[in-house]
Specification:
By secondary structure, the chain is an alpha+beta fold. It contains seven helices and 16 strands. It folds into two domains: 138 residues, 2-Layer Sandwich (Muramoyl-pentapeptide Carboxypeptidase, domain 2); 92 residues, no CATH class. The strands form three sheets. Strands 6, 7, 8, 9, 13, 14, 15 and 16 form an eight-stranded mixed β-sheet that branches. Strands 1, 2, 3, 4 and 5 form a five-stranded antiparallel β-sheet that branches. A three-stranded antiparallel β-sheet has the order 10-11-12. The radius of gyration is 20 Å and the shape is globular.
Length: 249
């Protein structure tokens, strides 16, 4: 199955997730695909009402118990967890836990996830989460991971001239929409896409920080600028990435 198809199918479930988890989920899909394993993200951010519905299954509603977490007691409720399944060559979901499921769990752990398949009390094989050191009690009390989120905008300038394209600050990095950025700089023809790796290309070279959002490739401005031959400086007072030089090519 085509990697780009897997990324696009999973994208709707990545909305509202913590930026680190969204990017790690996409990287999980890429790394598994490189080993011939097709991963689909089936669940991301879950509302309290949705959690109540899931908790009721096997208790006050028909079906088997699938969750022991009441509303507010799942990391899904805070955008800090995802669920996944595997797909066969025909695109049909595979829920039987086999060797490939365990391979995906191992890959996820290298990306910083905790895998529910290794829990001792309740094996939750589709579940992956990042707690950022926060307990459910702390999350209920209003604490959240300190990493900067998507709505933290930053500005871009090139040789002192403000650009229309803006970025977002995430975990201390400025992330930009690559094609829109390149279009404004007049070098859009240098931008491409690799279906094999699921990464944006600049001048044929893959961007390792590629993050797909709403069908558009984003990446770390420092990596993008480096491929374009531009210098990068940061002005924290004005939240501005100051680019300098002339675009190569």
């Amino acid at each position: 199955m085509d990697l780009n198809t897997l990324l696009q199918k999973s994208e709707p479930r990545l909305k509202g997730l913590h930026p680190k988890i969204r990017q790690a989920a996409q990287e999980l899909i890429r790394r598994a695909h490189a080993q011939g394993i097709f991963v689909l993200i089936t669940q991301g951010l879950r509302s309290m009402d949705q959690q109540a519905e899931i908790y009721a299954q096997g208790r006050t509603k028909p079906g088997r118990i699938v969750s022991y977490a009441k509303p507010g007691y799942s990391y899904h409720n805070y955008g800090l967890a995802i669920d996944y399944c595997l797909l066969d060559d025909c695109g049909k979901a595979v829920w039987t836990v086999n060797h490939e499921w365990r391979v995906v769990g191992s890959i996820a752990k290298t990306l910083g996830f905790e895998w529910g398949g290794e829990w001792s009390d309740f094996k939750d094989y589709p579940h992956l989460q990042m707690t950022f050191g926060l307990s459910i009690r702390q999350l209920l009390a209003g604490q959240r991971p300190s990493v900067q989120l998507d709505d933290d905008a930053c500005h871009l300038t090139l040789n002192g001239q403000k650009l229309h394209t803006e970025g977002t600050l995430e975990d201390g990095r400025a992330i930009v929409p690559v094609r829109a950025f390149a279009r404004e700089l007049g070098c859009e023809p240098l931008v491409g896409w690799c279906n094999t790796t699921g990464r944006v290309l600049i001048d044929g070279k893959p961007l390792t920080t590629t993050d797909v959002r709403n069908g558009h490739g984003h990446a770390w401005i420092k990596e993008v600028a480096g491929h374009l031959g531009l210098g990068v400086a940061w002005d924290g007072a004005t939240k501005t990435v100051k680019l300098s030089g002339r675009v190569k090519g």
